[in-house]
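Protein in question quoted for reference:
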Amino acid sequence: MERRLEAEPEFRVRLVVEPGKRVVTGAAGFFARNRPLVGHAVRAAGEGPGVLRYYWRGADRRLYRVGIEVSVTERGTVTGLEARRCEAPWGLTEREHEVLTCVAVGMTNPETAERVGCGARTVATHVERILVKLGAPTRTAAAALAVDEDALLAPFSGPEGFAVTAVGRVTGGCDPGPVTGGRRPAARPAGRSAGRRPIRLGAIYPLDGPRRFDALAMRRGAAIAVEEVNARGGVGGRRIDHLAIEVSGDTDGDLLRAVEYLRSHDVDAITLGNVSPRYHLGAITMAAEYRAPLMHAMVSPSITEHVHDNPGVLGQTFQVCATETAYLSGFVRTLDLLDRSGQWRPGNRRLVALVREDDHDPRRAAELDELAGARGWDLAAMVPIADTRVPWAEVVAGIQAIGPAAVLVCTYVEDELRRFLQELRRSGCRSLVYTVWTPTIPRFEERMEGLAEGLLWSTVIGTYGDPVSARFMRRYRHAYGDEPGSGSAAIHYDMIHMLAGAWSAVGRPWDFGAVVRSLRENVHRGAAGPYYFGGRGQRALAYPDDTWDASLAHAHLVHQVQDGRSRVIAPVELSQHAFRAPAQP
């Protein structure tokens, strides 16, 4: 990486900090002109044994390769600093070396432009040239290579009198400040991993509107996982920085701007909360152009079909659960189980399904009709409903006219489910009500204030009281003094641990292709069950919808609200309580 200057003999100087901080050198003139180097050596003596290397732009504007080694002897701690004249690594120009240092410490192009005193477009041009010289595919790869090769430059002053230190921290003034980075023998569990660019995890959470309770649980679950990984020393000595962005889940512009923001900050992966089906494909497609892994738990079939049809473009997109089509088959399967076991005696065989209009497909109606007919049920109606502002009085009147034994209502908006249950109660309808997902949100039963009593509900991913999920729930309660619910908190906790496992296995977080392959090929056991992305469109599997091998799939859990609490009643092997039949009129 380094070449000697041919025009003059090699130049080396050495300085030693002896026990008691006594500085000894035979090149007093050089260190008088480059006084910050003396401060580096003195401060490194207090850092403990280790080695640090970086580049230094001297007072003579020449480039020096600096090495600081701290060792413990019988006399005490001795620090040696050596500066050797050299050429820039990879044939970089002085400005390119400055820009690479800024990239390595995590600055965006505008921030870099401000530091080095040029325009953002000029910085972009420098970055392109740097990638070519380093043979790096992305900014992230270049940054990681610069840090791993100890190739950061110090100091260089920006227009505001700031300087970039040898370890990549920005400090005020011309003194680069403490030398605390480099290749230390031990990680620092709770702090920023010394001398290594942190892994940046970008996350988008819709924290306002109808999904706000769910999104808060997502963010908290992810935060616990990030804290756990960093407490263990990070991933390969790299700390995870959790870059979380709050957006309106029902605004296209905010969502796309959030994706662009994460791309501009060179994140190593993106996790996405539940956003409106009108906008999620645009955001996922935009994120795919960046090539970093993206993980989400949305259940729209259109996403997995889009991924399946465009593997070359969307192959880094992972859906950590089954699609909502599984809810339709689960509905019929559950009714059939309750009927055959004698736990429920329906007054007739008619069914009504209320499904989200954003993903309504006539083929799904035909499939559900065929499935129900094979079990002796009659799908009397499949009614598309909006996410919000549903005319429930009109919908319930239609249900009353049919008089079904059971009603499936697919809505992920808690306020809409509340209004449906209120209208149903006012109508006096006695149909068995079966819903999906929404009751996983923390304290759902409390907010329903008795409206949900007897309600059946299912989820294709969630916690079910095993030791792994129970341990996570205890940590969540301890951290926040609140309930985590049985869905999003654990799922987003698992996402971070899955990504951390892939980063650790690959060893190169910036190698997006290798990280994606690791996620695709391995099985992860998390707080919400096993994850294996073998389903259509690179989604996780559900048991028993996709496979009978429960070690590879999430259990499709069916609950009933009993005495104000949700109890698992199916599948049978995981049931904790028996079904309670609704009181007859």
Notes: The first helix runs from residue 28 to 33. Confidence is low (pLDDT under 50) at residues 1-9, 157-194.
